[in-house]
């Protein structure tokens, strides 16, 4: 059997396994909206947008299984109302101190606008710091948070990882036992399914595809945030620098989206059609 055929059968097998797991999760909940915690003491709702798990080819040529309910070509984990007018894309690394600081600084604003249904987050967990400092902490933490997404526990575990983040040069998140221990802070997360997902690195190839996308965008660092497609400035005085500046940017993005949705559609020209004898000749039109 050729390598391509073997890989194809493996992808098909993993897709069937993931779809079975998705059906079991959805059958237990019997509703579309799941309640998550965005940051400690923050409760938000997230929408499971589908059970199909997309597959990609990573740099190691293995099947890249996206976690359940991902969006944006399966490279983002969604939190918030599906039809929110403002969409904030967040590229983050769990070894990144600036990512933790941004989460703490902006979390209250995020919570308020997500609960109002006016803001949706699309998280892109990636592994960039591993390449610079060595280790596997970024990769394994991002995989673990994707495993939590499979069990509808993403945002709670996301908050736990950041609140227990080691120093940037400390690769403690590379220890899968540590990631499992931290999962005990999220009720119902440390299950055999979660342990298997973390220990096998089920979504690690997917994390690599997210990391490749991050590099393709040529962002200067993490966190990188795009609000309705426009990158936010992280520097002093920029939209990410303070809670007030960030909220101003969010409110403006919401207002712009509202104006666009309320703008009247263009109407056809009401000028009477010219009769053939009065139509301009091709030579006159081009002059």
Could you give a short account of the major beta sheet? Answer: 6 strands, mixed
- Uncertain runs are 2-15, 22-61, 270-287
Rg over alpha carbons: 23 Å
The neighbouring-strand order within the major sheet is 5-6-8-7-9-10
Gap between N and C termini? 67 Å
Shape, please?
globular
Number of helical segments?
Answer: 10
Kindly estimate the percentage of residues that lie in beta strands according to DSSP: 5-15%
Determine the structural class based on helices, strands and strand pairing.
alpha+beta
Number of strands: 10
Average the pLDDT over all residues and give the rounded result: 79
Helical amount? 40-55%
Order of helices and strands: HEEEEEEEHEHHHHHHEEHH
Main attributes of the structure:
287 residues, alpha+beta, six-stranded mixed beta sheet, two-stranded antiparallel sheet, 10 helices, 10 strands, 14% strand, globular, disordered N terminus, disordered C terminus
Plain-language structure description:
The protein is of the alpha+beta class and 287 residues long. It has ten helices and ten strands. It has helices at 3-29, 97-115, 129-133, 137-150, 154-163, 176-183, 192-200, 204-217, 243-262, 282-286, and strands at residues 33-36, 44-47, 55-57, 63-65, 70-71, 76-80, 86-92, 119-125, 224-227, 230-231. The strands form three sheets. It has a six-stranded mixed sheet with strand order 5-6-8-7-9-10, sandwiched between helices. A hairpin with a 7-residue loop joins strand 1 and strand 2. Helix 4 packs antiparallel against helix 5. The radius of gyration is 23 Å and the shape is globular. It starts with a helix and ends with a helix. The relative contact order is 0.13.
């Amino acid at each position: 059997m050729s390598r391509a055929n073997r890989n194809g059968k493996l992808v098909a097998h993993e897709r069937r396994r993931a779809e079975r797991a998705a059906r079991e999760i959805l059958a237990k909940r019997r509703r579309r909206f799941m309640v998550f915690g965005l940051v400690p003491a923050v409760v938000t709702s997230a929408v499971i947008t589908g059970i199909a798990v997309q597959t990609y080819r990573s740099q190691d040529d293995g099947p890249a299984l996206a976690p359940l309910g991902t969006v944006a070509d399966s490279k983002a984990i969604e939190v918030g109302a599906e039809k929110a007018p403002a969409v904030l894309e967040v590229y983050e690394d769990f070894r990144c101190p600036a990512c933790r600081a941004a989460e703490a600084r902006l979390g209250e604003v995020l919570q308020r606008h997500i609960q109002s249904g006016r803001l949706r987050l699309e998280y892109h967990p990636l592994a960039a710091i591993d390449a610079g400092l060595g280790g596997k902490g970024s990769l394994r933490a991002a995989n673990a948070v994707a495993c939590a997404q499979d069990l509808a526990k993403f945002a709670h575990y996301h908050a736990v990882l950041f609140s227990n983040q080691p120093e940037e040069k400390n690769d403690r998140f590379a220890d899968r036992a540590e990631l499992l221990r931290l999962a005990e802070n999220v009720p119902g997360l440390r299950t055999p399914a979660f342990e298997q997902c973390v220990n096998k690195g089920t979504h690690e190839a997917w994390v690599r595809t997210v990391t490749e996308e991050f590099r393709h965008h040529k962002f200067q660092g993490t966190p990188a945030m795009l609000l309705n497609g426009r990158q936010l400035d992280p520097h002093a005085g920029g939209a990410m620098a303070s809670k007030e500046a960030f909220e101003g940017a969010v409110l403006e993005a919401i207002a712009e989206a509202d104006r666009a949705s309320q703008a009247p559609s263009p109407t056809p020209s009401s000028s009477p059609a010219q009769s053939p004898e009065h139509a301009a000749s091709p030579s006159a039109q081009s002059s």
